[in-house]
């Protein structure tokens, strides 16, 4: 899968670029965003360094990193990100682990759901059968996004988060 632009009703999912770091530092600046995932808001230089690594691609040739910023079409403002890490299961079927984050000022508008659904649809089109996400058990908004994107909680846990999964029949 290649990181190509994806268009939804209200959003343009744009392939991540290092130049997005300055605006995304503002988008990700509210400490409330880190209540469940830990950490602190990254500064522009930290994001720039992270985006350099992400846009260079995964060091493992069996792994593909796909990262997008979410641009609200009505204002052209960046409002969040979605990402997918693609690997192959032991039987060589493609698997993607996805994640999303929307800046605090834009939450509660369904943008994360819209972006996650579009991401899962793009993964489907690319032949990815298994989609995974990890959600903190108390993060009800993120669980709602996962459910709306077609994932269901499993009994598996990783680093204090519930694994959510969607396996498309072959």
Produce a short descriptive summary.
The chain is an alpha+beta fold and 170 residues long. It has helices spanning 21-27, 44-56, 111-125, 140-148; strands at 6-7, 11-15, 64-72, 77-88, 94-102, 130-135, 152-158, 161-167.
Q: If you had to describe this structure to a student in words, what would you say it looks like?
A:
The chain has 170 residues and is an alpha+beta fold. The chain has a domain at 6-16 and 61-167: Aminopeptidase, CATH 3.40.630. The protein has helices at residues 21-27, 44-56, 111-125, 140-148, and strands spanning 6-7, 11-15, 64-72, 77-88, 94-102, 130-135, 152-158, 161-167. Strands 1-2-3-4-5-6-8-7 form an eight-stranded mixed sheet, with helices on both faces. A hairpin with a 2-residue loop joins β7 (152-158) and β8 (161-167). α1 (21-27) crosses α2 and α3 (111-125) packs parallel to α4 (140-148). The radius of gyration is 15 Å and the shape is globular. The mean pLDDT is 95.
Supply database-style keywords.
8-stranded mixed sheet, 8 strands, Aminopeptidase, 170 residues, alpha+beta, 4 helices
């Amino acid at each position: 899968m290649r990181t190509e632009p994806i268009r939804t009703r209200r959003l343009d999912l744009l392939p991540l670029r290092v130049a997005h770091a300055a605006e995304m530092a503002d988008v990700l600046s509210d400490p409330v965003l880190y209540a469940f995932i830990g950490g602190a808001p990254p500064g522009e230089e930290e994001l720039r360094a992270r985006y350099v690594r992400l846009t260079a691609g995964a060091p493992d040739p069996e792994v593909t990193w796909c990262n997008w910023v979410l641009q609200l079409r009505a204002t052209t403002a960046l409002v969040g990100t979605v990402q997918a890490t693609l690997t192959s299961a032991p039987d060589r079927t493609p698997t993607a682990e996805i994640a999303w984050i929307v800046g605090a000022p834009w939450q509660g508008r369904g943008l994360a759901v819209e972006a996650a659904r579009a991401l899962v649809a793009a993964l489907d089109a690319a032949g990815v059968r298994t989609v995974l996400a990890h959600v903190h058990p108390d993060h009800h908004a993120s669980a709602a996004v996962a459910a709306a994107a077609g994932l269901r909680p499993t009994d598996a846990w990783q680093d204090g988060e519930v694994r959510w999964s969607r396996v498309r029949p072959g």
